[in-house]
Amino acid sequence: MFFKYWPVLLVDDEPDVLAISRLAMKNFEVYGLPLKIYTANSKADAIWLMNDEVEVGCSLAVAFLDVVMETDRAGLELCDYIRGNLGNKLTQIYIRTGQPGIAPEREVIDKYDINGYFTKIEATEDKLYSLIKSSIRQYLSYGMALSTIELSNNLIEAAGSQRKLLYTLSPIGGLSPEQAETPRWLIIDGQVLFADEIDADRGLQLLNRLRTSEGTPLNPGGDHYILDNQGYRLIEVVGSATQAQVSFLFKSRFTPPELIVNLMHGFVKQLAVIWKQSRTDV
Amino acid sequence: MRILLISSSYNGLCQRAHVELEALGHDISITLALNPDDVRKGVTFFQPDLIICPFLKEKIPEDVWSKHHCFIIHPGIKGDRGPSSLDWAIMNGEKEWGVTVVQAAEEMDAGEIWAAETFKMRQGSKAGIYRREVTKAAVKAMLQAVKRVESNSFEPESLNYSNPDVRGVLRPLMKQQERKIDWEHDHVATIIKKINAADSAPGVLDVIDNQEYYLYGAHEESQLQGWQPGEIIAQRNGAICRAAIDGAVWISHLKRKNIVKIPFYKRFLSHDKQFDFKLPAAKVLGSSVTETPESPIDPLFMGNGKTFKEIWYEEKNHVGYLYFNFHNGAMCTSQCRRLLESYRLALARPTKVLVLMGGSDFWSNGIHLNIIEAAENPANESWRNINAIDDFVLEVLTTESKLTVSAVWGGCGAGGAMAILAADKVWAREGVIFNPHYKTMGLYGSEYWTYSLPKRVGPVKALELTETPLPIGTKKAKAIGYIDEILPDDYETYLEHVRQKAEALAMDPQYGHLLEEKQKTRQKDERVKPLAAYRAAELQKMKINFSGKFYGGEVNYHEARYNFVHKVRPKETAAYLAKHMRLDAAKLSELRQPLAY
Fold it and tell me: Which of A184, A209, B117, B464 is the 20 to 30 Å CA partner of B441?
């Protein structure tokens, strides 16, 4: 949700293929954000990059892997490395081969956990465009869904203790170095979590400003989603006897699709209920 | 008894006192001496029978010490007073030094004496002597004083300077003027003594290229020489070698002076990085040492000459001993890679047992937070560092050709406390304190801990150890299976025991069988769940700690690291230490505070 760009990795031992692909993708945008393209010319080079750059190691949106590089199956082994050794199930991996005879499509899609297969001849600019666009949509939805499930699990584990809940929530409410331009506030029953005095005041001011807009109802219970023209967004769950009033206020560089807003709402709602049932001093 | 520990920080001695007293069945709570009101609050809420101050730089409020039994552990012999005890002892070349337990009084360190211990001084840094000799003597004296309080019949000794037993005197705070190195006249031994007396704080202030720096980590050099005293003549693995009038001295770390400290968030959001914390000397000096020649050292150094060495190796009777003495136990990416290389070379030696000896003060404390803090992109450097340390741990875990032992003399925390478990056997000195948790640094942790820790202590204990960020002593560690053996608390005896036990292992008639069992177990474990899967899962979580994405990124690790590196004092005593405090759920700060290793 708080991306600046979409990290993409191209692995191919033909420098021309890398150069042409890079050129073709230069101006691609998905949800208004550009791509950040990393390239590697072999499996070993790609693995080195993955261990050197945390973004390539863990946060790749899309990877295009050639098959025949230092060995006949280097690209396929790299695919296994990403899925197995790095535990990365999220990156959308496409096999792009110049020698389909060595790695036939059916065999590859059956044996390897990839998202697609195409030959270099098929790789026109339009094809790349549609692949990038659809795969990043998929990456974002899948990533948000998995993250929401993980958060929900963590919330359930921490239920009963507001102290533990706070620890669980810290990735969401805190400010991270890369995301200073997309601040986030979690406000429970009027109290801003994690923010220092300056940030808390700013969060409350923004909250009051956004609340003046009507926004979109998220459910019949009165929960709302509000967005303003400066990129600030508010997901608000109303308080009641059984749930706390929780506001998730954040700035995003792009307008999240409805599915993602619903996922976030689900999480905020869950928090509202669990928070109410938890004690402060446990 | 109900004992309240009041300490300037939860340092090694305070942790040891905590562990030792709790093991005796005392009810312990801790308050950091952050301000007088905090101390009063701790006393009022906890209502202690006894107050002990293991490491205190501040003054205790009169209304506290006048109404309670309040002991100060002073790192000096009887009669010694003042804030620079050890500094003076090192500077004056004292042959014997000690620790005194005094009752708090109006005049600092001048109260009645409840117990005192002495020890032989050795050449070493102030921090090293504090962690080894002072800590050992302090614990002994403290336990004796507690016993004397319990006995209710002990008459403490008043401070009387006419008593021949009282050899100490009141000494002032040692100033930089007294520490200053005169490169034109000071011999190597004097330079080393001066740096040792100020290491790890405050460091000796010196000028290099017209810029003021504090110097740390002095090592004598027996071969290199230069013409101009003070001149930088070589560098090695981040340390610099400076010429002296009668030889040369290695200085491993520097800290720049005169940088204004700014709050975390401002620093966090600004791009202007100035390093006002301790770092390897060559890194601090940057481009000014690019021309300085690198003085290489054998990755499996076995020499006897005096020089700066972080990794060295000894071998005797089919046993190899690999030492890795990294400053403060922190292992940066390049150190981990060098250690891995040395480990592989040691594996190739014709031995049966390989003992991982660690360093003199610490076995390891995991990733190098100062280097990460100074990196262009701390998230990337964290990632590299954790991968590099994991590579080393993996090599130990998958060693099939020898039996491996972690011999833990110094303390270990975080990744280091998990890395020891990669070896087949873990032996530890009696007074070692383990901190097998990452939470105070806002990290999930790696080093294959999700494999090694539950395997040794079971899943329930594994969670308990990692979720509650408290230190454990060797008795508890052995009882839960975290370590295998406890060895004596005296360095020479400890080394002897390690040798005997390692040689016995190498000569064991069952050696072949043990090795075979080890291989079988590893293969079976690999079939159940490959090590790669453990690592992948740990690193996925670590990645979120380093730089999250979908729901944003974590701040805990970055803030905790900042506070640790910049020695930012916490605003309050962590809730897991201050039993007497109710948790304030609206504040998470107690979980964000790093432990002082």
Answer: A184
